[in-house]
């Protein structure tokens, strides 16, 4: 071994809190910074993970934003495939 450091290849970036089938927006509680254009992996129990690119994102007031820099910030994201409540978002470092 070259180092005894703990190596992580991914960052936990958010947790799906709610989905809205009518608007197609997913409410995510942010845990680490992510931005429009990032490719994220979405996964949950008993389902294989899948990748999505964040194309549009809104703050709690519905204003379009380019990034989510604040811990536990509530964001609304439009995904092509709507994830279920409780699913986890991560991104490769």
The major pleated sheet works out as: 7 strands, antiparallel
Specify Rg, calculated over alpha carbons. 14 Å
Principal-axes geometry comes out as: globular
- How would you state the average pLDDT, rounded? 93
Secondary structure category = mainly beta
Q: How many angstroms separate the termini?
A: 21 Å
What percentage of amino acids are in beta strands?
Answer: over 45%
Helix fraction bin: under 10%
How many E-type strands? 9
Give an overview of the whole structure.
This protein is mainly beta and 93 residues long. The protein is built from no helices and nine strands. The strands form two sheets. It has a seven-stranded antiparallel beta sheet with strand order 5-4-9-1-2-8-6, with no helix packed on it. β1 (10-20) and β2 form a beta hairpin.
Brief digest:
The chain is mostly beta strands and 93 residues long. It contains no helices and 9 strands.
Annotation keywords:
93 residues; 7-stranded antiparallel beta sheet; 0% helix
């Amino acid at each position: 071994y070259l180092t005894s450091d703990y190596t992580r290849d991914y960052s936990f970036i958010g947790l799906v809190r709610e989905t809205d089938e009518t608007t197609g927006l997913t409410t995510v509680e942010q845990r680490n910074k992510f931005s429009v254009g990032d490719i994220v992996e979405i996964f949950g129990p008993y389902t294989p993970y899948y990748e999505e690119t964040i194309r549009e994102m809104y703050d709690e007031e519905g204003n379009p934003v380019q990034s989510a820099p604040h811990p536990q910030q509530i964001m609304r994201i439009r995904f092509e495939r709507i994830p279920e409540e409780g699913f986890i978002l991560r991104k490769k470092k």
